Amino acid sequence: MEVVCPIDTQFAHQISFLLEPPSPLQVQEYFDELITSKQCDGIQVKPTNNYGKGVYADMDFEEGGLVLKDQMLVGMQHSSNKIDCLVCGCCFCFIGSTEIQIGRKLFLQGLGSPKDVCFNEKLESLMHEKLELPYSKKFPLPGVINCPGGCKEVYYCSKSCAQTDWDFCHSLLCTGEGSSNKALSKFIQHANETNDIFLLAAKAISCTILKYRKLKAACDNETDKEKNHLSDLLGDHSFGLLLKAWNPLLMGYKRRWWDCVALPDDVDVSDEDSFRMQIRLLAFESLELLKAAILDEECLPLFSLEIYGHLIGMFELNNLDLVVASPVEDYFLYINDLPEAEKKEIDEITQPFLDALGEDYSACCQGTAFFPLQSCMNHSCCPNAKAFKRDEDRDGQATIIACKPIKKGEEVTISYIDEDLELEERQALLADYGFICKCPRCVNGEV
């Protein structure tokens, strides 16, 4: 089935500008400003000889030293993980209380026993924080703040996070009262049933629309001198503002999703064309549902299949796993380390809940996110840095740690794959990223 998106033809000129790789000067100016605003001392983003841009040390880092804490541009918790963990929809820290985390998970997973009335009553008490577990106060969590729009899809750790997320993208994606609830629900359901990376693409498009509206409102109150050079060049002031709103996403390396997604092991090479056409069709189905929910006539180029496909491809190639450790694990480990006499008494209260949770008691928050600075880090099969959460890293920021000493001026590299694999396996996996690794280990043919 041929997939045709009229917006691709109607706005081909504008789409080409949105997808054109930024110039070295644009890259330098954007990342210099970003590093300054985020106070990410110790690194620089600069052009490289082989891979467009890279991250370089602006100071010496010792092994185990913190190289970067990078705040995500867009991120999300996997839909399937929302049963396991209640986290802030903005910063992804755990919220509520140890009691809420345990009670909610057991309730949603139906792990209570219909025959055990006493346990079920305790479970309900946990859910409503009427039962306090011993020592749970040693593991305090921020309270639960509802979405400003009243939806039940997302919760927050503070009014500040709620407002930030609302202003950033959620005001367009909220399924609360007064929204295009039915259309949004269809889009979300489709994403949950197929690939929840569509939800991340929707966030990216929504944040661009909202940023465009703010820029337009500000310019409506200014004189024509505020029109930028590209606006004059294109003869379209509104598109110049849209391009400016798109700027953070412009900086990410992109390929069409259906071109760059790895061929699954169960798909024969002879069926590759058919597989990639199916992926393209899946993206088109998702896009049509998103258009029905949040289409903005002034931002039509954002709803082209080319833009949607490149956005998802950018996430496919550049995203980092979003992982936040569970305080529930900390709680039960603390109970387990109590003196034996005290532990025996407390186990009578806590052990039934631990038994009901089973081996999955320590489930962490899991998701995916695009981090603007981390995504600039190039691959090496002998990297000098890695993504690694320390005990104190309890939110969704990316934490990059030096795994060997890094000298000032040296490029900071990470591994996109399992670097312990043999050469042929590494090269095969890296082919999906569109490059041949030229790190010392690969050049020398080391396994």
Automatic annotation (TrEMBL):
Gene3D superfamilies: 6.10.140.2220, SET domain. Keywords: Metal-binding, Zinc, Zinc-finger. This is SET domain-containing protein. Residues 41-417 form the SET domain. One of its GO terms (molecular function) is zinc ion binding. It comes from Deinandra increscens subsp. villosa.
